[in-house]
Amino acid sequence: MENIKEFLKRKDIVISPKRYGIEALGAMAQGLFCSLLIGTIINTLGAQLHIPFLMETVATVAGSDYTVGGLASAMSGPAMAVAIGYALHCPPLVLFSLITVGFASNALGGAGGPLSVLFIAIIAAEAGKAISKETPVDILVTPLLTIGVGVALSALWAPYIGKAAMSVGNLIMWATELQPFLMGIAVSVLVGIALTLPISSAAICAALTLTGLAGGAAVAGCSAQMVGFAVMSFSENGVGGLISQGIGTSMLQMGNIIKNPRIWIAPILTSAVTGPIATCVFRLQMNGAPVSSGMGTCGLVGQIGVYSGWVSDVAAGTKTAITGFDWLGLILISFVLPAVLCPLINMFLKKKGYVKEGDMKL
After folding, report:
1. Other C-beta atoms within 10 Å of 356: how many?
2. How far is CA 72 from CA 34, 194, 309, in A?
3. How far apart are CA 275 and CA 338, in angstroms?
4. Environment class of residue 317 by beta-carbon count within 10 Å: exposed (0-12), middle (13-18) or buried (19+)?
5. Residue 64's beta-bridge partner residues?
6. Phi/psi zone of residue 321: left (φ > 0), alpha (ψ -120 to 50 degrees), beta?
7. Cα distance from N-terminal residue to C-terminal residue, the chain
């Protein structure tokens, strides 16, 4: 047993929830952002601003035409796998081999591809790390083992992991359509909490392919956390804090939350209010990339995702036009309500002595 522990330590193979559930998952979201999400944004900009270069075909592969954004989106599997490998401190030969693993697991996982990539890339990466530099022909053995394990598991597991992820996501979306008020609260609160915790709400939404009304509730919850913390801590953190939290991440407050968990009450209660307003009043839907559902106001990705969904729906004929009511809902849910409700609730908490000045200082 000691020999195994020593081997794992030497290979930097750390089997822990933090390594896989926080570091790898968070990195996967970044890989997804730098491929699928950026591709979606590029396509939306090209279509809405009528930029010819972004709208025309720049490559044709196996009979499929790709725009610049399309090429970026097509690389989502490899991008996620390499990002995971980077988080797991993979040596170069393992890291580069994960490109193939990511492509295979994402393609075979279908709509639930991101979750397939997460599981399979982790196993393939750790297997590659275990064999790396253990033989005199490392340049052959390490890629062969990494790719072999990854592709084999992709063939065996990815379709089932993908279907499981889709089933869970479909269940959440079905329940939200059936009970928009209660599920609006639940999805908004839970995804918002995940956004502030050191895990990736974006990766969770992507893995579960969370779109539709449930995706809209997720956008509401994430925005409540980011804009809420940014505005109610303005007196302590100024403009820099407003920007870094409002369009960066509310995760910056995690250290302060550990010191005084009560500072989290206002954003959570705000998300419990904005979630059902999003689902019941404005019928806010995320029909863009699922990863956008878990991004909130980070780089305005959540709002761009909602808008790109509107554009796609109009093009498909499922939506007649983008209305003023649509814009009102998006702006109120994403910015105005969190900016108003969160400080008001926090003011009450301060009067009760639960929160004091300086508790949210970054």
Report:
1. 12
2. 8, 27, 18
3. 11
4. exposed
5. 61
6. beta
7. 44
Q: What is the pLDDT of residue 274?
A: 97
Tokens of 15: 């089997």
Task: Say how far apart CA 159 and CA 178 lie, in whole Å.
Answer: 28
Which single residue is written with the structure tokens 């393939």?
124
Task: With beta carbons less than 8 A apart as the criterion, state whether 345 and 271 touch.
Answer: no
pLDDT on residue 48: 76
Q: Could you give the CA distance from residue 282 to residue 326 in angstroms, rounded to a whole number?
A: 7
CB 104 within 8 A of CB 159: no
Task: Determine contact, residues 302/247, Cβ cutoff 8 Å.
Answer: no
The owner of tokens 């407050």 is 253
Identify residue 114 by its one-letter amino acid code. P
Q: Collect the ranges in the chain with pLDDT lower than 50.
A: none
8 A C-beta contact, residue 345 and residue 265:
yes
The Cα-based distances of 355 to 273, 307, 358 in angstroms read 21, 37, 9
The Cα 184–Cα 71 span in angstroms is: 35
Would you list the domain boundaries of the chain?
2-162, 179-352
The whole-number pLDDT of residue 291 equals 85
